[in-house]
Specification:
single chain; 196 residues; mainly beta; 4-stranded mixed sheet; 13 strands
Amino acid sequence: YYSTTKDFKVTIDKAKSVIIAENMTAQYDGNAHYVSGKLNHNDAGIEYSDNGFVNAGVYTVEISVIETKNYTSASVIVTVTIYSGDYDYAGLSFSNSTVVYDGKSHSIYINGTLPQGMNVKYENNGMVNAGTYQVKAILTDTTGNYKEITPLTATLTILQAETKLSAESIKDVYDVNKVHYITGYADNKESYRSYW
């Protein structure tokens, strides 16, 4: 027998890269929300087309990995959904107010800083005459980050002012055929007469 040798070619195919990631949902809270993926090997790191979403909305993210010496490239697409959140009125106050009538307009306003994109409109504000008024502050979100916001209410009370009267003393001689009177004035500029 004669000895012989023969060469054989061995081909090892690249293993398949597998990215594990799930769609993500969150509620708006002012913070950034990130989607996360996992890879079945450590030959390369995964990359994100975009990540870190704050505002309410639906976002698409492509998660991918490049081809390496031992693993194929791969990519998956996931969805990030951020729902509108509840507004907690943090840092805001809308308080009752009591003033005395002075002929001027009186109003109640929100104290504090509104979030960006938040508008406010007042109803039943800017009152002059004495009375009790329910003032409403209607908040409107233009960003879509918040659900419908319940209006704030406060009571504006305008008290009646105390009327001050003034008049000068007079001296006169009694006359049965003559009407005697004193002319006086109130601080609201209305005049009056007292007869006897």
